[in-house]
User: Fold this.
Amino acid sequence: MSLTLSAEESSVLLRDYRLTIEPAVDATYSLYAKNLLDNAQALDYLQKIAHFFQSPSILVTASLFAKRYSVLTMASAFYAMSRYDKGLHCRIENLWVEAEYTKPWLPTIRLIDRTVSIPTKDREKWRDEILREIFANNLAKVWQSLAKISKIPKAILWENTAIYVNWLYETKLGEGASVQEKARIQEDYHYIVNLAPGSIFGERKNPLTDYCGPKVTIMESEQPVRLRKTCCFYYHTSDEANDYCISCPKIKR
Assistant:
């Protein structure tokens, strides 16, 4: 028997976690995710969406697109895994990026196969399978492709990813959670950023660990923040000179 999300579960993911079940009405900016692994098609897509970011180069576009793609791939999958104990199928062959012409540009993700898995006796093994689909069988492949066509260092792409892993698990996923769900969220988060082996990510070692350290206090923020180790190049899209993110390593502190 195929398992699916309940109507209530789907409603949360559709409303708050960038999941969709419908193709975009205007498919101009939509993309079958696997096409990102083809150099020519990936380059064409980055060139097509560059104006949404006011990006001056393929390198900058690759970085800013990677931020959106990572959160699209992870957000609903992590919520389903850590809140519902259900696994979405997020391998790259199962995903469409759906996007309309809007500003700000906020694409959604559509799954071809919308069935879900559930843990049996070994939740840790089940969790590894979900994470491997998200990372090794999706994000790692896309990052490799983007690095090849734009010359962007993969370290930047993985730090972009880590920022959203931190945000999701520290801020979003716990909203309205029960005590049991909060414990599961914390356990999953600790495993993903500290204990998961490199093979889960399609890398020799866990590429997130270096970007998930403690927060620090800085003058630019009332709340503690994690300082980035790499620059995401967002400042290249601003009209103001040296308009860096508050955590940017280019800021002299």
